[in-house]
Amino acid sequence: MTNLDWDRVSLGIGEEEPLWETFHENSKTEKFGGYLSNEVVFRYMQNLHDALPYDSLPSIALPTSLSPLTRSLSEAIVMRTTPAKMEPCPISREQLATLLFYAYGVTRDNQNTPFPRPFRTIPSGGGLFPLEIYFFTRGAVEGLETGIYHYHPVRHNLRFVKPGDWCLDIAKALVQPNIAEDCSILFFITAIFNRSTFKYKERGYRFVFLEAGHLAQNLNLVATAMDLGVWNVGGYFDRDIDRLLEVDGLNHSTIYLNAIGKKLDVRQSVETLRSIGKAVKIENNLGNNRQ
After folding, report:
1. Is residue 269 part of a domain?
2. Which range of residues forms the domain containing residue 108?
3. Can you give the residue ranges of the Nitroreductase domain (predicted)?
4. What is the CA radius of gyration of the chain?
């Protein structure tokens, strides 16, 4: 389904009854709610993809060797900032593979476990992994044509889903249009909600967004460790982005955008480097207090 009559699926609620309150109350876990057995879950999941396959499109291999991260975890955490300014910069195929793998890649198989999917770099409610990753690049990534790509975490490869320069269309779909021009890669995190909600119902909808946060934080920390900047974008017109990605906007919809590029605000970086020294002192003090 790629087109919807939004007036028919939108719920009109007065100001005295905010929709978020209604949803929050109705997505609480109940002690005596009905839960699916593992057998039913496994059976249902046989009909679900672990990631959208796009098998009709040619596969684009990604390197299995990853770029070395030049900063420690503690440095990446402290140095993670939102740059005031960014600009596009060249991204190697290896750097792209590194960003994607650490964001949502497979780390170990699920053999001899009760879970139906291989494990990835982030936690997922029930091991269901409802997210998909697309990205747009405008010739900034080594060897990739301008257009929109999809990442398959289990196969660790790409599919070129939408060739063409969609920068203007993306800019029109953003509250801050300059983001489309000022980055090397714009990631679109989407969710196929039923992968989570078939088991967890309304609570599963919450889990989807928690998972997107885990993914985005990994992306932020890895980009920071590679001396790249990240803009985390919530200001976009959902239906326009969904149409661009050719997803239906209800069963499958965009929930987060992350732009990667070269940081230009050097002053902020210098101040952040100074704060690392303070963080190390705090870490050392905590260690001494535990002894």
Report:
1. no
2. 11-264
3. 87-261
4. 20
H, E, C per residue of the chain: CCCCCHHHHCCCCCCCCCHHHHHHHHCCCCCCCCCCCHHHHHHHHCCCCCCCCCCCCCEEECCCCCCCCCCCHHHHHHHCCCCCCEECCCECHHHHHHHHHHHHCEEECCCCCCCCCCEECCCCHHHCCCEEEEEEECCCECCCCCEEEEEECCCCEEEEEEECCCHHHHHHCECCCHHHHCCCEEEEEEEECHHHHHHHHHHHHHHHHHHHHHHHHHHHHHHHHCCCEEEEECCECHHHHHHHHCCCCCCEEEEEEEEEEEECCHHHHHHHHHHHHHHHHHHHHHHHHHC
Domain count, the chain: 1
Half-sphere exposure of 4 (CA within 13 A, CB side): 18
For the segment 105-138, what is each residue's pLDDT rounded down to a tens digit?
A: 999 999 988 888 999 999 999 999 999 999 999 9
pLDDT tens-digit readout, 208-259: 999 999 999 999 999 999 999 999 999 999 999 999 999 999 999 999 999 9
Q: Is the entire prediction scored with pTM above 0.70?
A: yes
Cα 192 to chain centroid distance, Å, stands at 13
Domain harbouring 188, CATH code: 3.40.109.10
